[in-house]
């Protein structure tokens, strides 16, 4: 367990009475002595605030963030449970204990991942159900074995592993699934597949038509299985614990509504803000994507009750990257040169007053 560090400021105090905050930031700002401290009630309610470098910020019970502007609290973007301001800038932590810093007017997530390079080169990677597979520019297929990628038979341009098994598409867009240690061709044509959903398989073809297989057919040994077509045009489609995400040829992001383990088709699309060239929904619920310049974004606030989440946060890992996948707390990244990176979450704890340690 982590031990929360209490900030040592030496200037100012605050007292919380009920939900009303009386505080002595004026004292902090003016650097007057404790004697003669005068308290003024500022309208509004906060659960936490911080003063430093002449500024005051706070958050309320809804995680909304406020900046003191004169005698008024002004709502600013984002959701945090704790905010801290000082000479090192404006920092905060959200309900998931992710740490953010305000940069150029935007909250940027501070890197929590420690990345190590894995020997080899890949152009595409997929992780799911505790396994990791990838393909390289020669369509060779690799499986992660310990800390190395080992070559396995076959030729694919895209591979995916998850609850519905190991699937892939080759350069001719033929579909294959691994059965009893062999690649078995399944009727149909797809350029990208994803096996990460609740035992169903999804994919898109060369015309960006979108298809899915329900779990009964996913696990059947038949080679002619009834793909269901969804009304959509997507270049990439991926499913995870909390549903399916896709992007179209204009990099517009969509979430598929009402997908469940019995009904891979779902019904309706929900447009999600932002632009991504690919998005991967993981078997453990996290959703990550890559934007047009190779930066990584993580979807925040995803839960069973809110599977679409709340916002995209930039993951501060130097790229640019062209492909990614996430499973079991590990973010797998392929950079533009094909180098493979294994990034492990370093979530530890929310350190109160962390800015003073930086
Ligand atoms: Ca996947």
From TrEMBL:
InterPro entries according to UniProt: Beta-propeller_rpt_TECPR (IPR006624), Tectonin_beta-prop (IPR051513)
- Keywords, sorted A to Z: Lectin
Superkingdom: Eukaryota
Q: Does the keyword Translocase feature in the UniProt annotation?
A: no
**Is Nucleus set as a keyword in this record?**
no
Give GO MF terms, alphabetically.
carbohydrate binding
Q: Tell me which Pfam families the record gives.
A: Tectonin
- Give the SMART domains listed for this entry: TECPR
Tell me the protein family, please: Belongs to the tectonin family.
Output the PANTHER family linked to this UniProt entry: DYSFERLIN-RELATED, FISH-EGG LECTIN-LIKE ISOFORM X1-RELATED
- This one is known as Lectin
Q: Which organism is it from?
A: Leptobrachium leishanense
């Amino acid at each position: 367990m982590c031990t929360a560090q209490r900030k040592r400021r030496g200037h100012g105090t605050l007292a919380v009475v009920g939900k009303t905050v009386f505080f002595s930031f004026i004292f902090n700002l003016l650097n007057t002595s404790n004697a003669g401290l005068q308290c003024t009630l500022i309208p509004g309610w906060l659960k936490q605030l911080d003063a430093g470098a002449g500024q005051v910020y706070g958050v309320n019970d809804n995680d909304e963030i406020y900046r003191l502007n004169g005698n008024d609290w002004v709502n600013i973007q984002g959701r945090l449970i704790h905010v801290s301001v000082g000479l090192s800038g404006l920092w905060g932590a959200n309900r998931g204990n992710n740490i953010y810093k305000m940069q150029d007017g935007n909250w940027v997530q501070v890197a929590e991942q420690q990345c190590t390079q894995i020997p080899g080169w890949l152009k595409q990677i997929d992780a799911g159900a505790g396994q990791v597979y990838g393909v390289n520019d020669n369509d060779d297929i690799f499986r992660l074995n310990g800390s190395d990628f080992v070559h396995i038979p076959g030729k694919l341009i895209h591979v995916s592993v998850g609850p519905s098994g190991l699937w892939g598409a080759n350069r001719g867009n033929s579909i294959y699934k691994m059965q009893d240690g062999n690649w078995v061709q399944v009727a149909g044509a797809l350029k990208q597949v994803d096996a990460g959903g609740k035992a169903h398989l999804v994919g898109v073809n060369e015309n960006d038509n979108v298809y899915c297989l329900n779990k009964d057919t996913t696990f059947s040994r038949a080679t002619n299985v009834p793909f269901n077509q969804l009304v959509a045009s997507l270049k990439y489609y991926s499913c995870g614990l909390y549903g399916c995400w896709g992007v179209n040829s204009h990099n517009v992001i969509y979430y598929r509504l009402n997908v469940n383990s019995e009904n891979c088709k779902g019904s309706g699309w929900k447009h999600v803000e932002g632009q991504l060239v690919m998005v991967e929904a993981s078997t453990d619920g996290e959703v990550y994507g890559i934007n047009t310049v190779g930066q990584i974004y993580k979807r925040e606030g995803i839960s069973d009750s809110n599977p679409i989440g709340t916002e995209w946060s930039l993951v501060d890992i130097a790229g640019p990257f062209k492909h990614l996948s996430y499973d079991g707390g590990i973010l797998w990244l392929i950079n533009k040169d094909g180098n493979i990176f294994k990034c492990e979450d370093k979530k530890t704890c929310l350190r109160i007053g962390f800015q003073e340690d930086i």
